[in-house]
Design brief:
The complex is a heterodimer of chains A (326) and B (532).
Chain A lengths: L1 H29 L1 H19 L26 H8 L1 H34 L3 H12 L6 H11 L7 H8 L13 H29 L3 H9 L4 H25 L7 H4 L7 H4 L2 H10 L7 H29 L7
Helix pairs in contact in A: 3-14, 4-8, 4-10, 4-13, 5-8, 8-10, 10-14, 13-14
Chain B lengths: L1 H32 L4 H26 L5 E5 L11 H12 L2 E5 L6 H11 L5 E4 L1 H9 L7 H4 L3 H8 L3 H5 L18 E6 H7 L7 H13 L12 E3 L16 H4 L6 E3 L5 E3 L4 H15 L12 H9 L3 E7 L2 H12 L6 E3 L9 E3 L4 E4 L6 H12 L4 H8 L6 E2 L3 E3 L2 E3 L5 E2 L35 H12 L1 E3 L7 H22 L5 H10 L2 H13 L1
Parallel strand pairs in B: 1-2, 1-3, 5-8, 10-16
Antiparallel strand pairs in B: 3-11, 4-8, 4-9, 6-7, 12-15, 13-14
The chains are: A mainly alpha (326), B alpha/beta (532).
């Protein structure tokens, strides 16, 4: 009897599978236009994002970057060396600290400015203000670094030092970009100046999507400006803030340009991040570098980045009733 | 079957060639024996020798197969596409009869591209490499050994005649040559503003004490004569230590006999100069000078262009920068700002002894080139042929980069027949100074250099001062230990130098840190590998 039931179950499963397969094929046929449109993106992703991952193999070799040259398998030797290097540890923690702090500060500032901009009634003034705060984003990091090096110069030509000295706050100019205690705060300030405006776009878009009826209803109920912000605007922004934070968290390990243009030899222990660490391994070696080692550092960076995203996804599901980002 | 036919044909061709050669020789000999007088016999003998010599030369020449096409990779030191590279290519092809394919990446990204080319295996026939990559790639067997081709070649004869054999010897690796450098490497010489010296009533310094006294006068006094004391600095540089060998060339007076990298001692053994007492003393001098305020306080964040601009704006008076062409550039830029452009190119002060000349970039034939001798003969050797091809590499194309026509260029008037460079196609208002080869630095000069008279006096003077007072840097050698540790080691050294200079730590503390962070261990490992 039970044998018969098993046979019947097997038959049913086979029928279901076949039906599913046909259904999938039918769906593909029905939406073939979309699949064709997706194809270029798929190929590009495959060619430029997935196939290069094969290169991670070099992290376990002594690859010297020469086609045809013998590549020796060294196992975990590159990783062993990496974890024994004080400079790597310093670069790793600097990357996390600088990147995550920058992300939190920039997001907070962007939200704050979006809220202020949203309150501006005069549309022309609002547009002018928006344009002005977006502009720094379009300056290259090299130009930005040059401008701030001049503003923060320790000589009498540095605007900040000139103000501080002439107002009697300090006696002698501070070399902001060459002192460990000052470099990090300056880095955050410069990043805020450059990227906060651009970060407001997505928040302003969310704010413009909130129905005016809701505010009107709140006003009728006697809510003031602050209460409307607290009970309507902030909850509406909450999902966007989390999404922006999570999406940007995936990029925290990729810090390079902004650090590289602002750092110098005197602040290396404070400012060296993983990407600049790889750069110095490559260009300070005085010879053809060990690309196996730099690949190992790169691979570690990617793995950490991936773990961060997964943690955020998990946190997102917990906080947002099971809604993750991946 | 096909192979057999081919072999037979080849054998027949060879036999025919040998018989023809014998026939020619016989006929020449017959002609000589028909002469009766002694004089005639002598003349004929001479003629025969000449003919034989010519024949031998022709034979030797025909032994080298002329390439149909040569692919080359070069940085921005050759005229760029925007500056008439196509005209250069066409002129070179017309002179040699060979198709030339030029790969010229953006100058700043050149070595990124070089790395990619070697990684991909798609190598050009000939490539320009700096000394570090030259030794590294040679040690990995991807550059052709041209020692035997160079020995006895016309090029060697020309280099020898100019007294520059030592420079070629200097780029040999274990006695073998893997490339050719057509110019000296040049280096930095210390320039002092003559007007500043005069305003402070000083002579050009010859010792370190005099040098420091001059910097103090330039810092505390009024060397620029603007009526304000202390608004200038003595010297400026782009960092306290250079980013690449020879590291010390922007502040040589402070480093003196110290060298923070690996160098070969007189007994042939290698050492890390950073671990020696001379380096500790140099660090102390830099720290003292910086604390005294005679060095530009922005030295750590300066780029070389920042230094140049400050020099042009009369913010400091002593600048160690490239000899030769740059002497003229500095002078003209000062004058353009309405300042006195006269500069004194200092002979090295007593404690420095000699400036350091870097090793010039090396033209290398890659191991993937199928006709090494052909590329050597028609590409490398012609580069310094003393004639038309060298002219092309040195000054560019007539009518595009230089001219002898009567005309006015950038405000300068030239008479008919007077050699002069033309206006830069990319930078209006400035004239070209050279093409790839610097006339001041070539290892074998043009037979008749039309541009020699046009070289400015200050350019010549600084180049001569440098050439007479410089030693060539050691060729960097690549080892596995260097690949493993030198990136971290150099970064650590740079950090310590900067921190000592800024007064954050003392010299002793710096060396204690060097020890505790593994620097001493890495340094020893590299020295051991070099001495193996």
């Amino acid at each position: 009897m039970s044998k018969k039931i098993d046979e019947q179950t097997q038959k049913n499963l086979a029928i279901l599978k076949e039906a599913n397969r046909r259904s999938t094929l039918r769906r593909i046929k029905k939406y073939r236009g979309f699949y064709v449109m997706f194809l270029p993106v798929f190929i590009l992703a495959l060619v430029f994002h997935y196939i290069p991952m094969i290169g991670n193999y070099y992290a376990f070799t002594d690859y010297k970057g020469i086609a045809g040259a013998k590549v020796n398998w060294v196992g975990l030797a590159n990783f062993t060396k990496m974890f024994s290097m004080a400079a790597f540890h310093s670069a790793f923690w600097n990357t996390l600290f600088l990147s995550i702090t920058k992300l939190l500060l920039n997001t907070f500032a962007a939200v704050l400015i979006s809220l202020f901009l949203n309150e501006i009634v005069n549309i022309h003034f609002k547009k002018i203000a928006q344009t002005i705060i977006y502009l720094p984003h379009f300056m290259s990091w090299v130009v930005t670094a040059s401008v701030f090096t001049l503003i923060l110069s320790p000589t009498s030509e540095g605007m900040v030092n000139q103000i501080l000295v002439s107002s009697g706050i300090i006696d002698k100019g501070i070399y902001f970009l060459a002192e460990d205690t000052w470099w990090k705060p300056m880095f955050f300030v410069i990043n805020l100046w450059k990227d906060t405006g651009w970060g407001t776009i997505i928040f302003l878009a969310t704010l413009s999507g909130i129905s005016p009826d809701v505010y009107e209803a709140a006003s009728i109920d006697g809510a003031g400006r602050f209460q409307k912000m607290r009970y309507i605007t902030m909850p509406a922004l909450q999902n966007t803030i989390i999404t922006v934070l999570i999406l940007n968290l995936a990029k925290v390990m990729n810090l390079f340009e902004s650090v590289f243009v602002l750092q110098n030899d005197a602040v290396l222990s404070t400012s060296n991040v993983l990407q600049t660490y790889v750069y110095y391994q490559t260009f300070n070696s005085g010879t053809i570098p060990n690309y196996g080692y730099t690949t190992a550092v790169g691979l570690t960076k990617s793995v950490v980045g991936c773990i961060l995203v997964l943690i955020c996804n998990w946190a997102s599901k917990k906080v947002r009733d099971g809604r993750g980002i991946v | 079957m096909k192979k057999k036919v081919l072999s037979t044909l080849l054998a027949l061709t060879m036999t025919a060639s040998v018989l023809t050669a014998c026939g020619s020789s016989d006929s020449t000999n017959t002609e000589t024996t028909t002469e009766t007088t002694e004089e005639a016999a002598e003349e004929t003998a001479e003629t025969t020798e000449e003919a034989e010599a010519t024949e031998e030369t022709a034979e030797a020449e025909t032994d080298v197969e002329k390439p149909e096409k040569i692919t080359m990779m070069v940085d921005g030191t050759l005229v760029t596409q925007e500056n008439g590279r196509d005209e250069f290519e066409a002129a070179w092809e017309a002179l040699t009869g060979i198709d030339l394919e030029i790969n010229q990446p953006d100058h700043d990204a050149y070595y990124d591209q070089v790395g990619q080319v070697f990684a991909s295996g798609d190598l050009p026939d000939v490539i320009l490499l700096d000394s570090t990559r030259y030794t590294s790639y040679a040690s990995m067997g991807v550059l052709a050994d041209i020692t035997d081709i160079y020995e006895g070649s016309d090029l060697q004869a020309r280099v020898s005649a100019a007294g520059n054999d030592a420079l070629i010897e200097g780029i040999k690796i274990d006695g073998r040559l893997y490339g050719f450098t057509p110019t000296r490497g040049n280096g930095c010489v210390t320039y002092v503003k003559k007007a500043w010296l005069d305003n402070c009533g000083l002579e050009a310094p010859t010792t370190y004490d005099e040098y420091v006294a001059m910097l103090e006068a330039f810092t505390t006094g009024d060397p620029d004569g603007n009526g304000v004391d202390g608004d200038t600095y003595g010297v400026s540089a782009a960092g306290f230590i250079g980013g690449e060998a020879p590291y010390v060339n922007y502040l040589p007076e402070f480093y003196q006999d110290a060298y923070p990298g690996f160098y070969q001692k007189e007994d042939g053994t290698w050492a890390d100069g950073f671990t020696e007492d001379a380096m500790k003393e140099a660090l102390q001098r830099i720290a003292d000078a910086n604390a005294a305020g005679i060095i530009d306080p922005e030295t750590l964040t300066n780029g070389t262009s920042d230094c140049r601009n400050k020099f042009y704006e009369d913010k400091f008076g002593v600048f160690t920068y490239w000899a030769g062409t740059w002497a003229t550039n500095l002078k003209t830029n000062l004058e353009a700002n309405g300042l006195d452009g006269e500069l004194v190119a200092l002979e090295p002060i007593a404690e420095v002894g000699n400036y350091i000349e870097r090793i010039a970039p090396v033209w290398c034939i890659t191991a993937s080139c199928s006709n090494v001798e052909g590329v050597y003969k028609y590409f490398i050797e012609t580069m310094l042929d003393g004639g038309d091809v060298q002219m092309l590499w040195q000054y560019g194309v007539e009518g595009v980069h230089w001219s002898t026509a009567a005309e006015e260029v950038c405000g300068n008037t030239y008479a008919e027949g007077e050699f002069h460079m033309l206006e830069n196609l990319e930078k209006e208002g400035t004239q070209y100074t050279k093409n790839h080869l610097d006339p001041n630095l070539v290892l074998a000069p043009l037979d008749n250099d039309p541009g020699a008279a046009a070289i400015a006096d200050e350019n010549k003077a600084s180049a001569e001062t440098f050439a007479a007072n410089s030693v060539v840097a050691d060729l960097p050698i690549s080892t596995d230990a260097m690949q493993q540790y030198n990136g971290d080691l150099t970064t650590l050294k740079n950090e310590l130098v900067a921190n000592v200079a800024q007064g954050k730590i003392t010299v002793d503390e710096a060396y204690a840190q060097f020890e505790s962070e593994g620097g001493a261990e890495w340094s020893q490992a590299i020295v051991d590998s070099l001495n193996q």
